[in-house]
Write a structure and sequence with these properties.
heterohexamer, A: about 170 residues, alpha+beta, six-stranded mixed sheet, about 20% helix, about 45% strand, B: about 450 residues, nine-stranded antiparallel sheet, four-stranded antiparallel sheet, binds FE2/S2 (inorganic) cluster, binds fe (iii) ion
């Protein structure tokens, strides 16, 4: 329980993730894109239920999202349209980012893991649809600002309970 | 002895007039969220039709298995030691426990976690514990897993039929195979599934997806307007109604297909040359090959719930389009809900890099996160909601499937169409959907009772 | 042609004897959580009654809309360009998609997100894409949105009735209007809704709320004891049984109202002078105005599920009480659940500061967080639970609505009551609730079949 | 007057042949998840059987109460001032509110939170507010809480029967009491419940638990293999099929018990001497006491849903085993779900330290976190899933309960068995489960209609 | 990702919110009131589903709670009663406060946002009813102790899934 | 809102709990056991719904888990088996540890409370089963490493909504 990284790094990473979550919850997608590195690799693999001896079930080939900056930007542009029905009226989301763990850090790179719970509401439904995952992120410093350089979202579910994955994780 | 459950004999009254309705292009909205209809569909359609189970390339090795539904019942699809595929009810013959609790994997046997009855991967009962003490006269051969009486493999697609008296798959598909061949049999290696399927839940009836893939071209410009705006699909492929690229084929032995094409061009759904050079003209008829060559988009549904979409698109307007094939099943989960299963395929001969690219492009357009699919699944639940209203019942509300019906259109079917079925050179029609409901009604109101010998 | 659904003809056996039961003050508990009863209520009550939809002040401008249920069906209530209000089924006539997906807003048209059929705000079909190519003979005039055949606006309240043969609203309300006028027509501007309604879910049958507002005075001292303890309501308004302030009016053309008053005082539900000076004696009869003047509390239910409560209360014992009016609907959501919709109103002429104050006081007492309402909705689910027991069925359990019935009380109705209905000067009675169930039984067992012409 | 609900008369067709099926060791799988069966069970079994409610030691003092279900209906079990136990429907006679909202506690009265009707702890109506004003003729004596017409207390176990015409508890238990005495009446103080019961939800039918405790010995080696691997239970107690320790007693007046023993040893389910020295040979017959002495495990079910398990085990292979008794009820929650209630008991005379130890050991093996129970409840849902398939209905699928039936085994019943019922010296049989279903079928198909006088 | 405020402020605000949540979960309402400024403005607006172009749907006029110190105290006093049926037996609540973001801070004032998930259980129900929201708070220092001076709770749901809002958010 | 304990203690405790949660979510039970003191007392009492005046309903005698190191180890060993059906295929869990509160700290001991939400998924179920609780922990320093010395998990539910409690809390 010694602190492998200084508390400042943890605090910076935490602020980064909290700010990112805020932008996503507030649907400020263009400002969110500014937090994302031009070299981003962003993946959400498909998962299957497997015998324990066959591992945790994350696919190496199949993804719910497998994005680079250009495809993320295309998604954001589409959401700008009033005709993006899946998000107009928008899903109301609330992200809780928990258990942030810095794995390694240099002056220009932080590798971290966090646990994510997203509560999603559409229309009149009083109960949220919940999506949870571990996120494994790499933040990189670019021109003195941190950017999201790599994200791997490890979902806990195998079947998505929402009609569309029209939010970012 | 078998005592048929009462639900098999309940045919809702409002189906009585549906044949006449259909001729006028009308369909009772209640079809989309009605418990009686649903129970009847499970018994008359899903328990009797050729239902898609898995793709051969999901099960490369003996012992490879996946679990898949037929209707709402759980089955295991497993490759046997002899290479044959078995479709087994995931239910122990002893006292009903689930014998396979993983969704996929590889196994040498299915051993029940309850009392340890053990089955070979072909479903035969291999042994029971304490046989000498408690089962001296148990005939192992009578207590194998229940299995689908008919399994067919066509161009990599595995279908099963639970009806012992089912017609053979070839007969079931009929001349629609002419179109299926184009999607699935163009290269020597056939098509290959990339990774595991997407699975997700949508609060809409399963028919909503199945009908959509029969040629609902007129929704593209509205439902998918935001996707069209960001420039990821060619205008011709998007099927604007005024364009000449669209072709709807209906009444092809009970099925339909929608085609978008650019006669004279070499398109092959935007597959690149590194892929198309494996397409083998000798594997198809010249007409089939020519159609493939000029095609931008193909989509169709093999009744009841297997659909395909062959398409070239991109995920970023700055990158070129790439061709891919998606296949999917619309699995019923009660009358107002379905689980969509979605696979992405490419020709087996495609380079690995291309496969990854095609997967990305497929996922980005048709999957839970797909820029197209997102908006489809968002509008579909409205119909299920309308279907569940008391207003619909009291007023016997009927939906309008009249687009292009009779004198609604002045566009005549092609006289010289080289393929089976009736081909109308227009995107502005719902003939494919009407074909779907004609087939549906025929299967739902069939007179012979369901086979009922005990097993 | 219309084929009535079977559910309309199922009348549970235990209703047969209910007329006799009611005379003895008994009501079968099963009414409060029974699927058959519920389905029948949707068809015989909600599809045929004048149902509250919205308040005029929610829709000040042309194109303003809100979405609201009738029974469990989704409707849009929209103000047309001519100022008239339209009540439209939120379901596209093409293939049933939801045409309006927001809960409120302003629009120039309703354009379906599926294929783009576009409707005017009065419900007429304005256009369909690709009409020339696919809909050459489509009669737009036949494919407008379904709309409620009757809409009435009374004192700012908008009601709709789905039954084409419905009696006019005035006839439906009958002499009960005498009491409604007092709540809704006291000032020239009428009442005004403040903000958007509260909506929340309670695991109780909708009738539980509806009956409560018919004059269930005897629950106040127990259910609301904690609220009384903190001194936010005057003792007289709280309706202690021994007080002389209480008045229950029953059998007023099928409806009831509960009144608490202090004869001789100027109360006007604790509205302050800055409000009451707008109350216009010429708008009501002298007797109506006099009743308003001496009133502490009024609450009633217009069958089936529209209730009101006019009241003066505070949210902090250190601040004076303020008058407000809450109206609410008890929307069924299955047999054992309802969604409560709650609006808070004041006279339109009230100063803005007072409106805010009245809202606070209303919210603090009658809303999901209301000190009164919290405890109501906590006890109500118990009855739904009791109704769902097997014990209730096997023993045909009946609830006791005998308070004040016949010789249970020696308090006689007022002979000289100036208003309609029978007025009993006591809080200790359930006559208003019995009136509710008499009306309910009459509507449920009505002999003429539901209108069933196709649309 | 009582109008029986229609559900009481619906007997699914497939029960017609079940008597013959059972003789062949077959049971229709649909029993495990069928709405009609379930509704009938609530009416024919739970509303007519002696159902376990609570243990006397849960209610040491007057006014102590717990809330418990009978079938799916809510009851209060309360100790009266005279020490008698009352079983009262948790539903106010006025208008059905829940009068007791805590799960356990102590009270002097049950006062309804709705209008304040107040009941004594024996269920009598003590008073109603505003009686003089509103209830002058209310007969308080007619409006007490509904109560179970029969309550029996046997060896600390409190049972209730809702059927006024029920046979007495002694007759209901019959000769099975011989085995119950061994578990519950071995020491002068009897058994004592330690703490509050575990409650948890399992997606399996209630019969799945009830049958399991009738002697499903052959599951232990497979279901519980991981628990056996970590060495927390003696091999003999685990009931390997080849061992001579197992004994299944079936058809003991409709019930069954499974016994594991080591003749010649002093075992008493691994209770230590500090406990066993309180066991009193004079309280039982010599044969009963001798059986207790040599016993490792006893488990049985008193129809319908009360089971017990007497056992010695440890929670850590490095610590010695300790004996304890678990009792449980399998409470139905719809056709495919149950709530398990689990209590852990020791003889009252056991030292406090031992009680704590026994609790730990009991919890660690049979509770939601129990190393044994975890795996039981994981395999059981599979049968409910199988039961809900359309395949099961169309093919009338029957489960196999043939282990040890007839010539399946060559092990003969003991001729000289000193206890009641038929005792087979083998773990490899399902005779106890067949007994359970014979009893079940008898109760389900009983001809006399349910008692239906109004209350 | 520079730290606009010192880590001490974040830590203090976090402790304040955690302590507040603990008091509310433990139903120590009078001690909670001691953390609330006498000048508190405490609002939970009603929300509606709107077309994106019409905004996020928060009402300016309609509230689930719109409180000052006196009304909060009245609510607390009512909950003291054994006859406050909606909370006797009490709802069992568990609050998770996540994504705490300090927006601005002076020596005497901190403005912060946080994400709230409340899991509510009543009686035998095994599954919680969930309520999520963003909270925008202002803490003020009074006599050297921090107090809650302003709270705006932005719910994610439009229809409340619980029979009563008898808890504080 | 003064900081009774230095921020370092909070940070250390937070890292401990986050690491522990990660090991549990990842099913690295043997490594988790290394974080647990040989003298651990680990309890999860049964809860009942009571009138407020009768307290919060936690049992003093009945437990869902009442463990020492030996019994925890036995549970872990059982989970190693491929025949531990309740966890093969494994429950997929996601823990969010929130509201960490240090109650007291010495050089060798930290007493803390935290709020726990566990989202559990089995097989095809798209919606998680949720378990929430307050945890009251004592960490002790042993040979310069922190170990979990005492844990009391106060569940918010009275009826467990999952078929088995085959995870650690
Ligand atoms: S249920 Fe499969 S072996 Fe018994
Ligand atoms: S469903 Fe509305 S336009 Fe087609
Ligand atoms: S319902 Fe119990 S007193 Fe009225
Ligand atoms: Fe589409
Ligand atoms: Fe009330
Ligand atoms: Fe077992």
């Amino acid at each position: 329980m010694n602190a492998p990284f200084d508390a400042g790094t943890e605090a910076e990473a935490t602020r980064f993730l909290n700010r990112e979550a805020e932008l996503l919850d507030n649907r400020e997608f263009h400002r969110w894109l500014e937090m994302v590195s031009a070299n981003i690799r962003y993946r959400v693999p498909v998962r299957t239920t497997r015998q324990n001896k066959e591992g945790r079930g994350f696919s190496e080939k199949a993804f719910f999202l497998d994005e680079d900056h250009g495809t993320l930007k295309t998604r954001v542009l589409r959401l700008d349209s009033e005709f993006a029905w899946s998000e107009n009226p928008a899903t109301r989301t609330r992200r809780i980012i928990g258990n942030i763990r810095v794995r390694s850090a240099t002056a220009d790179t932080v590798a971290l893991a966090s646990n994510l719970a997203i509560f999603c509401y559409r229309g009149d439904a009083a109960a949220p649809i919940i999506l949870t995952a571990e996120r494994q992120d790499i933040l990189g410093r670019e021109n003195s600002a941190w950017k999201l350089a790599d994200r791997l979202v490890l979902l806990d579910t195998t079947v998505l309970g929402m009609e569309s994955l029209s939010i970012f994780l | 002895m078998n005592v048929p459950h009462k639900t098999d004999s309940i045919v809702p009254d409002f189906l009585a007039g549906m044949g006449e309705d259909l001729k006028r292009g009308l369909v009772p909205v209640r079809l989309f969220n009605n418990r009686d209809i649903h129970e009847l569909e499970l018994r008359r359609i899903f328990a009797r039709s050729w239902v898609f189970i898995a793709h051969e390339t999901e099960l490369p090795n003996p012992g490879d298995f996946v679990t898949r539904p037929i209707g709402e019942d759980p089955f295991i699809c497993v490759r046997g030691d002899d290479g044959a595929v078995h479709v087994l009810l995931n239910s122990c013959r002893h006292r009903g426990a689930q014998i396979c609790r993983a969704e996929m994997g590889n196994t040498r046997a299915f051993t029940c976690p309850f009392h340890g009855w053990s089955y070979k991967i072909n479903g035969e009962l291999a042994g029971v514990p304490a046989r000498r003490q408690g089962y001296r006269e148990l005939e192992l051969s009578e207590w194998g897993l229940f299995s689908a009486p008919h399994v067919a493999s066509y161009a990599g697609l595995i279908f099963a039929n639970l009806d012992p008296d089912a017609v053979p798959f070839e007969q079931y598909v009929g001349r629609y195979r002419w179109y299926l061949d184009i999607q699935f049999a163009l290269s020597p290696g056939g098509m290959e599934v990339i990774g595991e399927p997407h699975r997700w839940l949508v609060d809409a009836n399963w028919k909503q997806g199945a009908e959509n893939f029969c040629g609902d071209s007129s929704h593209t410009q509205m439902t998918h307007r935001s996707a069209l705006e960001v420039g990821i699909i060619a205008a011709a492929a998007a099927g604007a109604p005024s364009k000449e690229h669209g072709l709807h084929v209906h009444d092809c032995d009970g099925y339909a297909i929608s085609i978008r094409q650019n006669p004279g061009e070499t398109l092959f759904w935007n597959y690149p040359e590194e892929v198309t050079r494996h397409f083998d003209p000798t594997r198809l008829s010249p007409a089939q090959f020519a159609l493939a060559k000029r095609s931008l988009v193909h989509n169709g549904t093999l009744f009841p719930n297997f659909s395909f979409l062959h398409l070239g698109i991109t995920d970023n307007a700055e990158r070129p389009p790439a061709g891919f094939l998606t296949i999917r099943t619309w699995q019923p989960k009660g009358p107002g809900r379905m689980e969509i299963w979605n696979w992405i395929l490419t020709p087996k001969e495609a380079p690995d890099d291309y496969k990854r690219r095609a997967y990305q492009v497929g996922m980005s357009s048709f999957s839970p996160s797909g820029s197209f699919e997102q908006d489809d699944v968002t509008v579909w639940p409205g119909t299920a909601r309308s279907a569940s209203t008391v207003f619909a019942e009291l007023n016997n509300v009927k939906l309008n499937y009249q687009m292009g019906l009779g004198s609604m259109s002045d566009i005549a079917p092609l006289r010289d169409w080289e393929g089976p079925g009736t081909a109308v050179p227009s995107n502005a029609g719902e003939s494919g959907l009407r074909t779907f409901y004609k087939t549906w009604l025929e299967r739902m109101t069939i007179s012979n009772p369901i086979r009922s010998d005990a097993r």
